[in-house]
């Protein structure tokens, strides 16, 4: 069943940016667009497709098969068989490690192609994606390959209470088993499509779970290319199933695959990265159906705090990475910037200059530091919040308008001062290149302002004083705190939020806990001789 699509000018695009694919001398001109179910690419049961668009030009890239409830059912059926009866059900940890390492090898082999495809579909600039996203994807799969034969290790436990006749380990043998939680639904966002797929798939496959993963409707293409590599790596059929489509409703008015996954009674867990609003709906769906386990990595409105003794140039550079990275489309973006009064004016002037120096352009524009927003919807949201900031009395120091870059969804790098807690730009997650800066006087004041949010995903602090550092670390309510740095990620470093920024942790050993159940076993010991 043919589900490939030709991308007009794809080979030309690759050649224009000087990409050389290690896998082949031939540059690809087609991409896979089907639903990946049981190691096959198939058309949707409803016969529906949707268009994915290049945000730099607003032109269609190709049509992609659109999943509906029936496709979710088919994918979960395949994943259930894989987990309970198929080859995957008897695949041990050492073999799972081989599969994950093979997948990492294939991603590395095709890294230029994947980076280009990601940038075409998402709009992020190629240099950033090639230097950060793709290496982090590879590292994530390699990291969890290392855990695959270690993560299901239990412990023996001493029991000696009255239930044992006070005999303890002389009369009973007691131990724990760590087992995969089962068939897992995963829903990933559009801001880091391939990286978020790795964050979800890595620990799930390491522990032996089977997966039904739904991509964001804005950015399906890199995950579908990943599906081809998953099959090439030899991962057994049904272990990974990847669907493209909408969340709540399909384009034809039926239940969307996102809702179908969160409500499905045969899933044992759902993992979601996205908005807090949708995360709450997923928790409700899980509670109303089968109480499936839920982990959520949600929104943020992260504080970034600069003390007067900080290296001001390093702090400005770090603040710009923390906010403008990926067009501001980061859940942990340091969008509430606090600067101590004595250096505030200097900081503002240097920040304006740094923002003015940012080059806006398409994903493949040489020297571009900032690409388009991912979609028209996101473009409109960002510009609406910028307009609200002006209307509510904030001072726009630079930017504040769509960038004059033709038809794409480009927004100027924007910096606001004179912002207060009553303003939407201060309280709402913008997910765009919009920085808001406020002065502060004292430690107690800045901690109170930093914690004055419903979110608690991340924070940053810039100072040379270790006592200040530890006071911030101990008192700011956030899941990740970067010190004299920002947006530093590693597969071994857990990531997740306090408060309404989520439940559970991605990455590191902690993520494995999301995908395992603990079974306690107690055996009576009787003399048989």
The whole-angstrom Rg is 24 Å
Major β-sheet strand ordering: 15-16-17-14-13-19-20
Structural class: alpha/beta
Q: Roughly what fraction of the amino acids lie in strands?
A: 15-25%
Average residue pLDDT: 93
Largest sheet geometry: 7 strands, mixed
Distance between the termini: 64 Å
Report the oligomer: single chain
Find the count of extended strands (DSSP E, 2+ residues): 23
Number of helix segments?
16
Helix content: 25-40%
**Which descriptor suits the 3D outline?**
globular
Which regions contain 5 or more consecutive residues with pLDDT less than 50?
Answer: 16-27
Descriptive overview:
The termini are far apart. Helix content is 37%, strand content 20%. It has 529 residues and is an alpha/beta fold. It has 16 helices and 23 strands. The model is unreliable at 16-27 (pLDDT under 50). The strands form seven sheets. Strands 15-16-17-14-13-19-20 form a seven-stranded mixed beta sheet, sandwiched between helices. A six-stranded mixed beta sheet has the order 10-9-8-11-12-22, sandwiched between helices. Strands 1-2 form a two-stranded antiparallel sheet.
